[in-house]
Design a protein that fits this description.
two-stranded antiparallel ribbon, alpha/beta, six-stranded mixed beta sheet, about 200 residues, about 30% helix
């Protein structure tokens, strides 16, 4: 039986394509990349003075929660990200809190199980884990991120996943701010695949 995707209803949505990801895979839609870029900027790019996680100051901010709390926009982003998952990946991972909706949506779109990574600190109750969800030794993992700046938080997540026995082979991001993240991933021997760069979106300091 072919898995059905989340509802395609909602404003700004492209028609559902008949192509599937395989005999048992989820349905995929062809998402207009240029239209998605315009809608992403309109929904999530804020202007002003902002301090980023890296400590840097910026004249713009990409509000990741505006990307992941609107179902129509999230679904279109996810359809594009699903096309970027490398062959042979066995799990997708997302950093808490921002990338958890992305990892969940990507899991639903691809049929791959997901795990969530706490990069700040493990919880101090329950199991006390830094990684939630099942992760088996040797699993090939793609880490999905919302916005990458210097890549520091992503690399912390990579270290935690690798220490747990996984093999992180790719980082997939919605937006690359082009502030050093790509270079750090290359130095670490990890493939980096952003859906958009800030240059492509026409934003930047």
């Amino acid at each position: 039986m072919t898995r059905k995707r989340l509802s395609d209803a909602g404003p700004g949505r492209e028609p559902t394509a008949s192509r599937s990801a395989g005999a048992e895979g989820p349905l995929r839609r062809k998402v207009d990349r240029d239209g998605l870029a315009r809608d992403l900027v309109a929904a999530a790019v804020l202007r002003g003075t902002f301090t980023l996680r890296s400590g840097q100051t910026s004249s713009y901010y990409i509000d990741k929660y505006r990307l992941t709390t609107e179902p129509g926009l999230l679904s279109r982003i996810t359809d594009r990200l699903a096309e970027m998952v490398p062959e042979g990946i066995e799990r997708v991972a997302g950093t808490a809190l921002g990338a958890v909706p992305l990892a969940t949506a990507l899991s639903l779109a691809t049929g791959l199980p997901s795990v969530f990574v706490r990069v700040d600190a493990a919880k101090d109750h329950g199991t006390g884990k830094s990684i939630e969800g099942r992760l088996d030794a040797g699993d090939r993992v793609a880490l999905v991120e919302d916005v990458v700046t210097t890549g520091g938080a992503s690399l912390t997540a990579v270290e935690l996943l690798n220490a747990a026995g996984a093999q992180v082979v790719a980082v997939i991001a919605v937006v690359d701010r082009e502030e050093g993240g790509r270079e750090r991933f290359v130095d670490a021997g990890i493939s980096f695949r952003p859906l958009f760069t800030v240059t492509e979106l026409g934003i930047g300091d």
